[in-house]
Amino acid sequence: MAPEDSVTRGKVAVMAQAAADMSYWGPPECLQPYEDHFHPLSTRKGNKASKHVDLRRKLPEYASLSCIPKEHPMIQLNDLDFWDYCLRKLFVQKATPLSKCINSLGPGASNLLPKLDDPSLPSESIINLDSRPREFTIAQWAHLVSVFRDWPFRPEDLSIDTFFLLNKDHARR
Prior knowledge:
Elements: H1 11-19, E1 20-24, E2 43-45, E3 48-50, E4 65-69, H2 80-91, H3 98-101, H4 113-116, H5 138-150, H6 162-166, H7 168-172
Antiparallel strand pairs: 1-4, 2-3
Helix pairs in contact: 2-5
């Protein structure tokens, strides 16, 4: 449930927020210590359990959430592939302004920019072209995805592993 502009905000958080209303059931502190609430209790080395914790590694903060599916989700019927593609491509460069990372959606995607910050749009859909993907609201993501979906020059294949499907011999190495 990472908020806009959080460094931990990613594709899963955006898609979850677009599909469900989420709220915390309690503060993260109520799930501490870890051993009292989660399994497994420790990592194993051979047959002995190890309580060693690498202090350099920041452990994730766990939270208990309530997720209620939205009656009218932002992800429209048959748009899941477009959402997945746009989020996947833009979150690779989530700290880069949209004006500089838009072409990761495909060659010529910069032609979409005027449609994204059009002043005639509802204010919640207008995207500041200097904002970064992790700062977008759900309404802005929905607008970006709809503009991408309607773009006649968008890539036809939105899958993840096109390279490996086309180069099966390379994938076996």
